[in-house]
Write a structure and sequence with these properties.
single chain; 32% helix; 28% strand
Length: 112
């Protein structure tokens, strides 16, 4: 039976994250890169459900954990997803709006 991560307890989320990490490691050993990426993305979303969305604010700029040199300006939050725009090292904001799990956001850099 499939459940949504929002229905999981914190303990179940951590078990799921451990399981996904194990699956990603096995896939990496087998050379299945796309399966590694799928499991890593699922882990990031599951980790977002262990975090408090109230710790992240609209119109604030945060580091991106997986992409040094890029920051992310939050326009609004929808559950555990932050909607906004990436900003590169030159301070250029990308036009395309995207949603990222809050687990990918690092320290707050600035207020916009």
């Amino acid at each position: 039976m499939n459940y949504r991560y929002s229905d999981y307890s914190v303990e179940e989320l951590y078990r799921e994250i451990a399981s996904l990490k194990e699956k990603a490691q096995k896939a990496e050993q087998l050379g299945n890169i796309s399966e590694v990426q799928i499991n890593e993305r699922k882990m990031q979303v599951a980790m977002a459900y262990t975090m408090n969305p109230d710790d992240f604010l609209s119109d604030e700029v945060y580091e991106l954990k997986m992409e040094p040199g890029y920051t992310f300006k939050i326009d609004y939050l929808n559950g555990v997803f932050a909607w906004g725009h990436r900003i590169n090292l030159l301070g250029e904001t990308y036009e395309k709006e995207e949603a990222l799990p809050i687990s990918l956001l690092g320290k707050k850099v600035a207020s916009a």
